[in-house]
Design brief:
201 residues, mainly alpha
């Protein structure tokens, strides 16, 4: 802390000018040494000049009118702190009405309603036809055969075989896989395949 000549270092003298925090021996040396006391007076003047220049610069940068506006804004924010935020409205020209093609038309509503009604009726009909058991359908076919037999219009009567679900699906799979009638093969040859259509595009 002391320089070779036993004088106080500059940082200790600046500390003494700012807050006076010196040890007892440093304070005694500062009072007894005229060189250190002169340096302290010089540093005090320099620090005072810097402080005055800083205050003048701040006064120029922040005039009283600007500080008043800033204080009023701060007070408004403090008042609004407990209140809910406000929404900013966009300019009227930014919000345009939807184009006419995007608006729903009554015809499309009726089409959608008809499709929904058709779906509901289809589900209901499917549910009701599932309730017919094979015994009920056999009774119905026997009643028809009896009525035809009474009139004499039926010449040959055969039994109708009902297919199980697995048999039906296997026959459907065979039909789809191409094992079909020879009469349909020319039509199959004329039908374009997906790969052919994709190559044309």
């Amino acid at each position: 802390m002391f320089i070779r000549s036993r004088h106080l270092a500059d940082d200790r003298i600046v500390d003494a000018c700012l807050d006076g925090a010196l040890s007892a021996s440093e304070a005694g040396h500062l009072d007894a040494c005229p060189g250190c006391d002169a340096r302290r007076a010089e540093f005090s003047r320099l620090l005072m000049d810097v402080s005055v220049a800083a205050a003048e610069g701040a006064d120029e940068a922040f005039p009283e009118a600007r500080l008043t506006r800033q204080r009023s804004r701060i007070m408004q924010r403090l008042v609004q702190h407990g209140q809910p935020g406000r929404l900013l409205a966009f300019p009227g020209s930014a919000i345009e009405p939807a184009p006419l093609s995007a608006r729903p038309r009554p015809a499309t509503r009726w089409i959608a309603a008809a499709a929904a009604a058709g779906l509901a009726l289809g589900l209901l009909a499917g549910h009701l036809t599932d309730r017919l058991t094979p015994a009920n359908s056999r009774r119905a076919s026997q009643a028809v055969l009896r009525s035809l037999g009474d009139t004499g219009s039926a010449q040959s009567v055969g039994t109708v075989r009902q297919l199980s679900e697995e048999e039906f699906l296997s026959e459907l799979d065979a039909a789809v896989s191409g094992v079909g009638s020879d009469a349909l093969r020319p039509f199959d040859a004329l039908t374009p395949r997906i790969s052919e259509v994709a190559l044309r595009e």
